[in-house]
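Repro:
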Amino acid sequence: MEVKYILSLFFEKIGEEDLTKVEQLSDAQSLKLSKALGILNFIYLQIRCDYLPLISQEQVASVDGKIEYSKLSERFKKLIRLEKDGKRIKAKTLPTHIETLEDGEMTIEYIYIPKALNLDDEIFDNRLSELEVLYGMLSQHYLDENVFDQASYYDTLFKEAMSRAKYKGREIKVKERAWV
C-alpha cells in the first residue's frame, strides 16, 4: 500500500484537496501535506509499537558481554530471543546495550522501531489495510482539530480494527457434555 494513496484517501475523507497530486505546492499546502505525513508517521509508529510489531533477526558479536544497540541494523525496541549455537542465552536489556554472560557470535531476534515514512514509500504488510491506517489518521486529525466526537468515533474504529488484526487466534470449541 502506497503512502501517497493513504494520504489521498485521508484528504478525500476530510473534504480537502488531494495535495499528493498537486505539482507546485504553496507554503500553506506544503504545511498541510507535511502535517498529514506527520500524522501518518505517528499512527504507523503506534501500529508498529503497540499492535503489529516489526521483528528482525541478525547475527551479532558480544564483546565483554555487551551488544551495543548501535551495532544493530534497526532501532532496537524489545528483545525477543538471544541464541548462541542453538541454545538460548539469558540477557538483560539496558539503556545503551544488551548485557549477556557470554561472548562471541550470537543470533538476536528483536522488535524494532520503523523509520519514518516518506511520500514515495510503501507499506508491505498483508495484515494491515489502508482503511485501518486511515481510521487512526482521522482519529488523530480530529483530535488535533478539537472535534472530539469524531475523534472518539474513529479511535474506536481504529482500536477495533487493530485488535482484529493483532489477534491470531483460532476458533474456540467447547466439548459437548451431558448434563446430569
